[in-house]
Amino acid sequence: MALEVKSLTKEYTRGRKIFRAVNHVSFTVCRGDFVNIVGRSGSGKSTLINMLACLLTPTEGSIEIDGLNVGDLQDKAASAYRNSKIGYISQGQSTLASLNVLDNVRVPFYLSKREGSPEKEARFLLERTGISHLADTYPKHLSGGEVKRIAIARALINQPDYVIADEPTSDLDVRTAAEIMKLFKEIAETGTAVVMVTHDLEALEYGNRTFVMEEGRLTERTIDGSLVG
Ligand SMILES: Nc1ncnc2c1ncn2[C@@H]1O[C@H](COP(=O)(O)OP(=O)(O)OP(=O)(O)O)[C@@H](O)[C@H]1O
Predict the structure, then answer these.
(1) Could you give the CA distance from residue 126 to residue 154 in angstroms, rounded to a whole number?
(2) What is an example of a Pfam family matching this protein (predicted)?
(3) Given ligand 1 and candidates 22, 46, 49, which is best to mutate, with the most ligand atoms within 8 Å of its CB?
(4) N or C, fewer C-beta in 10 Å, the chain?
(5) CA distance 219 to 229
(6) Which atom of ligand 1 is nearest to the CA of 46?
C-alpha cells in the first residue's frame, strides 16, 4: 500500500510567462511513513500537496494511491475517494459556522454515508487535540489555533489511510504543536501515512523522512541534511 508520485508537474502562468511551481517531482510514500516537507515560501509545497489531495489537477505526471491513478478520477469520484481515504488539513481555516465543534469534526463521517454516529471517536479526537471543553461551542467564538485543531480532528475522523496536511501547527503554541505531532506519530505507527508541509523545524524529529522543496524540485534528506539517493 503506497502513494506513488511520478514526474508530477504543475505549471502556472504569471504575466505572459509559464513557470513550473512543481517540476517533475517523483517519490513514494509507504503506509506508516511520516514525511515532512520543508522549503522556502513559494517553493511549491502547497501546490504539491494540493495535487496529492486530489484538489488540484497536475499539468503532467501521475499520482497512484494504492494502485489507483487518482488523476483519472472525475470531480465527484475524486471527492468521494478523498473523503474515504485521505484526511486533508488545509493551510486556511475551514469550519462550518452553523455547526458546533463536535459536529464540525463529525461532518466527514456523515458525508461518507456510513451507519451510526462517531461520537466516541469524535470526543476522543477532541481530547487528543486539546479542545474537548469546546465540543458545544460554535466556530465564531474560537481562536485561530482552536479552529486549526477542529480541522485536524476532522481530518482523522474517518481513520484515513493517508493524512495530508499543510502547516497543521502554524497557529499553535509550542506545547500544543508537540501534542499534535505526537498524535500524528502514533497514527503513522498504526499504518497511516502522514505527509506534512511544515516550517516548524521541531516537527521534523517526529517524522521518519524529510524532503526539501526548492523552486519546484523535491529532494529527500537524511537527518544530518545530506541528500538521499
Ligand atoms: N493559482 C496560481 N496561479 C499562479 N501562480 C500560483 C498559483 N498558486 C500558486 N502560485 C505560485 O506558485 C508558486 C508556489 O506556490 P505554493 O503556494 O505552492 O508555495 P509554498 O511553498 O506552499 O509557499 P508558502 O510556504 O508561502 O505557503 C509561488 O510562486 C506562487 O506564487
Answers:
(1) 9
(2) ABC_tran
(3) 46
(4) C
(5) 9
(6) 22
